[in-house]
Structure prediction request, 211 residues.
Amino acid sequence: MNEIIELYDEMLNRLIIAAEYRDTDVPKHIIRIKLYSEWLSRELKMSQDFIESIKFAAALHDIGKIGIPYDILFKQGGLSREEFVAIKNHSQIGANILEGSNNSRIQMAASIALNHHERCDGSGYPNGIKKNTIPIEAKIVTICDQYDALMMKKPYKPSYGHKKSLEIITKGDGRTLPQHFDQDVLSAFKKIAGEFESIFNTYQDLNDDII
Ligand SMILES: [Fe+2]
Ligand SMILES: [Fe+2]
Prediction:
């Protein structure tokens, strides 16, 4: 039985890598998002079943990027309005790939894929929904994804480091604002921010042995 669970887990991770193969950062990003989501869910006192589900579902949050043209997804420098609109499509594409399942974990994955760029003040995408209409699993992944995006070094941006990333999320920098996030999730994040930093540091140098 354990072997089947291991096989299933490994195949899931390898499928995600295959789907997002073009982005070399993805394997590390996915592992970190799974761990941040797990820690944050535990801090929020979510059920064990929720925690197991989010570890599975969070890994698939950006699966819709498979439908975004390479030239746009990895464009260095500024994006045009049309290109940005095309990138935003990854939320809906991910939901299209995952929707309609009877399996509760895949249903959660579809919810996260669709809603992980929504913001509590309604300024997110794809639907601009607010606070209580955004599912909790998406609110959790949003903050994890934001922290990781700030910490990651990209061709178009430096890593901001833990202190600055934490400050941007909790106090805002004009672009990212605390009101984008669910306040309970934000408080839980503040409490265990040190854990986020060690997850990032532990899983930033993995190469191919990332499963
Ligand atoms: Fe995304
Ligand atoms: Fe992401």
